[in-house]
Amino acid sequence: MPPTTRSQAQRQVPQQQDDEDSSEYHDSSSESESESGSSSDDAMSEDDDDDNGEGDEPDVVTSSSKLSYRLDRLSPEDRKRVRKTFKKPPQLSLKLCLLHDNHYGFEMTELVHRSIRIGGPGSRWNGLHCSCRATDSRDGLPCKHLIWLLDQVVKQTLYDHDPSSPLTMTPGGFPEEIGDPYSDISAFHSDVLADGLHVFNPDFGTGDDSDDSDASDESDESDSSEEGDTSRPLDRPIPHRIQEVREMLSAISSTAPEDFRPDLLATVFRMLLANDEFFHYFLSQMRSTDPVNDPFRKLSQRVDRVLHELDAFAAGDPSRPASAEGPRDVAWAARHITGVVALIRTNIFTRERPLEPWERSSAARALVRILAGVVERNRDFVPPGLRTAASSVPRQDRNLFLRLVGDRDEGFVLNVLDLLPPDAAAPFLHTLEVIQDQLGVHGAPASYVEKFRSLMSRLRRRASVGSSSTPATGSKRQSQGPDRGSKRVK
Fold it and tell me: Biased composition, Acidic residues: where in the chain (predicted)?
C-alpha cells in the first residue's frame, strides 16, 4: 500500500604547509584589510536594517537547505543575524573541504574569497573562524558565512532527525543536536562530506579508481594554471565531479548518465570540471527531476563511496593517506549506511506530496543496491597488519553483514522496501533473487528471512501482472525520457 505523506495525513485528519602567512586559504594581509573593511560595511548595513516587528518574528526559521531551527535560546541580536542570513543567504560557492593540522578548512567564493576554519582540540584554530573577521570583531557572534556554511554541513551530516522538528540554534551558529562541529565532521569524514557539498578534497579528491580516460583527456586540455585554481590537479579529474557533470549534461542531452560521453559537449564538460563557479551555476539551473538532484541517487552514491573506503581499509591500500579522523572500519561504515537508509525513509514519508513513479523506482533502486552491497560483504574487514589480533575484536565490529543483517533482525532495508508499492521494486526482482540466495548461504535471522520471502512473493505477483499487460511508463525517470525536449540553461 503506498505510503501516506504528511499532507495526505493532514487532509485525512589549507593543503600542505600550515604557515599563518601562506596562501593555504588565500587569506593574505591585503585581503584581510579589504575584508575587514567589507565586514565593517556589512555590520553597518545590518545595524541600519529596519528592526520593526522584531517581537513578532517566529521563533522557528527555515534555511536554504530546508532545515528548520528554533531560535528561542539566542539573544535578540543573534536571532536577527540568523534570520537575515536565512532570509537573504549570501551568494557563496563552495570550493574546497579538507582536514589539515587538526582543523577543517573550507574555501568559498563570494565577491571576495572567504575561508573558514573549524578547529579541534589542540589546534591553533580552536573554535570557528572566518576570514571576514566578523566573528572576532563582533564579540564572537557568528558571521553570515559561518551560519550559511554550518547549515550546509549539518544538512549532510545529520542522521536520524525528523525534519518536521526544528533544530535548536546555538549562539555559535550551529544546532545543538550535532554537538561540536569539529567532532561531527570527524565522525562523518571530510571526504564524504566534500562529495555531498559538491566540493574538492585535495587529500582524497582524485582517487585512483576512475576509468574515465576520455574525461582525463578532456581535462588535460584545460588551463591548469588559471589564477586561484592552483590547488586542484586537473590532470587527474575528480571522479565524483565527473559523475555529477555527466548527470547534469545527460539531463539536457536525453542520455543516461552511465552512458554519457563528452561528445559535442566536450567543451562544456571541460568547463564544468575545471571551474567551480560555472559548475555551481549550472547545478543551480538543474530541475528537481534531473539525476544530479535525485536525493535517492545521491544517497546511494554516498554508500558506494563508504563501501569503497571500507574495502580499501581492509586491503591496507598504501595509496590511501592515513586519516586523523579515525579508521574507516565496519562501525564507521555501518553508521553511514544505517543513516542513509533512515534518510531514504524520511525522504519518502516526510514530504508534501506523494512520490512520483520515477521517484519510487529510484528509492527502491537505492535500497536494493545498498542491501546488495552489504550482503556481499560477509567477511572480516581488518587491515593486514592487525589480522593476528582480529580474534580479540567482536565479530560484529569486523563483519559488516553480521552487524547489519546476520546477527539480529532489525528489518535492515526491508522495513522501508515493504512500505513502497510493489511496482517500485519489481524491476529489481532479479537482483533481489540473488540476494535471497546469498542469505541462504550466509545465514540470517529466521524472522528476517521470512520478511524477505513475503516481499519476494508480492514482487513476483506484481511482475506476473505487469508482464501480461502493457509495460508501465511510470518507472522511467521523468527527466530522461527519449521524447523529452532538451532543456536550455540560461
Answer: 43-59, 206-228
Q: Are 178 and 67 in contact (CB under 8 A)?
A: no
Q: How far apart are CA 270 and CA 122, in angstroms?
A: 41
What is the distance between the alpha carbons of residues 233 and 237, in angstroms, rounded to a whole number? 7
Burial 201-235 (b: 16+ CB within 10 A, else e): bbbbbbbeebebeebeebbeebeeeeeebebbebe
pLDDT at 106: 87
CA distances (Å), 368 to each of 97, 361, 414, 432, in order?
31, 10, 9, 7
Q: Give the whole-angstrom CA distance, residue 475 versus residue 478.
A: 9
| Cell numbers describing residue 160 | 536520524
Quick one: which of 128, 130, 116 has its CA closest to 42?
130
Residue with the bigger pLDDT between 195 and 384: it is 195
Residues across the chain: 490
Q: Quote the CA–CA distance of 454 and 449 in Å, as a whole number.
A: 9
To 10 degrees, what angle do helices 181-188 and 330-349 make? Answer: 100
Instruction: Of 109, 136, 116, give the one whose Cα is nearest residue 39.
Output: 136
Least confident piece of the model among 1-10, 123-132, 140-149, 438-447? 1-10
Could you state, in order of their start, the residue ranges of all structural domains in the chain? 56-196, 213-284, 294-467
Query: Residue 15 is placed in which grid cell?
Result: 593543503
Distance CA 449, CA 394 (A): 24
Stated pTM of the model? 0.60
Question: What is the percent of the chain with per-residue pLDDT over 90, rounded to a whole number?
Answer: 22
Q: Please enumerate in sequence order all residues whose Cβ is within 8 A of that of 437, keeping only pairs 6 or more positions apart, or say none.
A: none
Q: What ranges make up the beta strands (E) of 78-232?
A: 93-100, 103-109, 113-119, 127-130, 167-168
